[in-house]
Design goal:
It contains 28 helices and 5 strands. The chain has 570 residues and is mainly α.
């Protein structure tokens, strides 16, 4: 048995995992409870993404050796991979009880806390890993990821940069930091970072994809298409690169790109992430081609595919929208002495695809304004307040001044000194009460559009990241959108004249008048030199406004045929 295990381990270490599995299985045929064979076979399953089998075998190893820290740690990894992070946490804690200096167990514990959205605990676990192994670049990278999700974007950038100091060219950290720079409107810095990394690793498909995103933000569309093409040449099944390239060009006819996305989306054996990205890219291409029924079918299918793997409760989401308003209802939020007076940031709020990016791009041209991107700061500060005080009515008025000051200090790091901050974090519509109390001079522009068109636009856009779980089933999305509109009405009664509503259709119909209204509301001088360009997503092979309208009309007609009740939305 020992010789079989050693032979299997040698195969395993040389990359021949399936052959190694055969050796481990022969051991288990003779000794079903052999802890080493169960553990090693579990690792093979873990490497192959067969998480339930990995849990089964590693759990048997743990049963035989319950104090083995390595077995316990790998059991936690398998449980987390199987979508059972709540069970993974105690496995990692047992590993750390057996070996308190086990840095990898702390890092993996952080991974499980992150999956549970327990970000403060995740940050603490990753910091423990970093303290035990400060020269491990991967730990700094993981810390950066969870700091970013927790809303500490400045600290996240520092963690990524430390990872790169320790390991120059470390591709995951380069990609993450460049993505953060993209989100914060600093594409030139991101491009410089990615180009330096590609000089060391010219065949990294993910970095070429990231390079395309940055070039796109810089307006270098042809170069961006070339970067996506290079990424796909290196990794033909890279769904994310397919999607971004599809959204950057107008498709005049079916070509090899469309066929490749169709094949990838239809491949049941391909990684699910790649299939989903390819499906959204395919839907966009079919829309361009005027194959509207096929496009709608594709969007419905790809959303269904993604919805199957996420956890979402519509009832809970609607209850949270109501609770957001009810916490602040009846409170006098705007009165002398409450909040951080004098600061006047502009919050552009609303669900995705409501026109926020369009307005942000226009405001960014004003000389007194600077976009800060989508800052997660308010959500983090509100979470901290609620943790400290339990409920809104228990928050002392002095705390609002501190929150407003903390927000402005953090937001100010993202814009040139003296400029007015524009924050476009979509989820800030849930924090209108906090904005009103902590920043009484802030202006809130709430972007909206017709419900049917808005729901379709959301369904046709792959919204990655947390907070968009409502967006992948048409019935759920429409119901959430109705609850969201109810919340908007309720917030107007709470926040009063601090909110200006901006309808996307009105903006397109009379941009000059509506933008003058926005400027007056935000206390900005009207700059006639600020050009009004409502095309915030330029594409190669651009179409005339008439052709765009005709194509969009055909697409909406196909949606109405697929779901006739959409036409009745208010």
């Amino acid at each position: 048995m020992a010789e079989l295990l050693q032979a299997g381990l040698r195969l395993h270490q040389s990359g021949r995992a399936e052959e190694a599995a055969g050796h481990y299985q022969r051991v288990l045929a003779a000794e079903p409870r052999n802890p080493a064979a169960n553990h090693l076979l579990g690792l093979v399953h873990l490497q192959r993404g067969r998480h339930d089998l990995a849990v089964d075998h590693i759990a048997r190893a743990v049963a035989a050796r319950p104090d083995d820290a390595q077995y316990l740690c790998n059991l936690g990894v398998a449980l987390n991979g199987a979508g059972r992070p709540e069970e993974a946490v105690p496995a990692f804690q047992r590993a750390l009880a057996a070996n308190p200096g086990f840095a990898e167990a702390y890092s993996n514990l952080g991974m499980a806390y992150r999956a549970l959205s327990r970000f403060d605990e995740a940050v603490g676990a990753y910091r423990q890993a970093v303290a035990l192994k400060p020269a491990e670049a991967g730990f700094h990278y993981n810390l950066g990821n969870v700091l970013g999700e927790a809303g500490f974007i400045v600290e996240a950038e520092a963690a990524y940069r430390e990872a790169l100091r320790l390991r120059p060219g470390y591709a995951p950290a380069v990609n993450a930091l460049a993505g953060q720079l993209y989100d914060r409107g600093r594409p030139a810095e991101g491009l410089q970072l990615v180009d330096a990394a590609l000089a060391l690793a010219p065949n990294d498909a993910v970095l070429h994809m990231r390079r395309g995103r940055l070039l796109e933000q810089l307006g270098r569309l042809e170069d961006a298409v070339g970067a996506y093409g290079r990424s796909l040449a290196l990794r033909p099944g890279f769904g994310e690169a397919h999607q971004h390239r599809a959204h950057l060009r107008r498709h005049a006819h079916r070509d090899a790109d469309v066929d490749a996305m169709q094949a990838l989306f239809s491949d049941a054996d391909a990684p699910l992430d790649d299939r989903v990205f390819a499906g959204f890219g395919l839907g966009k291409a079919l829309t361009d081609l005027g194959e509207h029924e096929a496009a709608v079918d594709t969007y419905l299918a790809v959303n269904r595919l993604h919805r199957e793997r996420i956890v979402f409760s519509l009832d809970q989401a609607r209850a949270e929208l109501r609770a957001d308003v009810e916490r602040f209802a009846g409170l006098e939020l705007s009165r002398p002495g409450v909040g951080h007076a004098g600061a006047a940031p502009i919050f552009v709020v609303g669900l995705p695809r409501s026109g926020k990016s369009t307005l942000e791009a226009i405001l960014a041209r004003h000389p007194d304004v600077a976009p800060a991107g989508e800052l997660p700061t308010l959500s983090r500060l509100f979470t901290q307040l609620m943790r400290q005080h339990g409920e809104v009515r228990a928050i002392p008025t002095s705390a609002y001044e501190a929150v407003g000051r903390a927000y402005m200090e953090e937001a100010g790091r993202s814009v040139p000194q003296g400029r007015i901050v524009v924050d476009t974090m979509p989820s800030n519509y849930r924090h209108i009460g906090l904005i009103r109390a902590a920043l009484p001079d802030a202006r809130i522009v709430w972007c909206r559009r017709a419900p049917a068109a808005h729901c379709v636009a959301i369904l046709e856009k792959y919204l990655t990241g947390r907070g968009y779980e409502y967006a992948f089933d048409l019935d759920e999305l429409v119901a959430y959108h109705a609850a969201y509109r109810d919340a908007a009405v309720a917030w107007r009664s709470v926040a009063g004249d601090a909110i200006l509503e901006l309808d996307l259709a009105d903006l397109r119909a009379d941009p000059d008048a509506r933008l003058r209204e926005v400027a007056d509301f935000c206390g900005l001088s009207w700059e006639g030199a600020v050009s009004v360009d409502l095309e915030t997503e330029p594409q190669l092979g651009g179409w005339s406004a008439e052709r765009l309208a005709r194509n969009r009309s055909g697409q909406m007609a196909a949606w109405y045929r697929a779901a006739p009740w959409l036409a009745a939305l208010a």
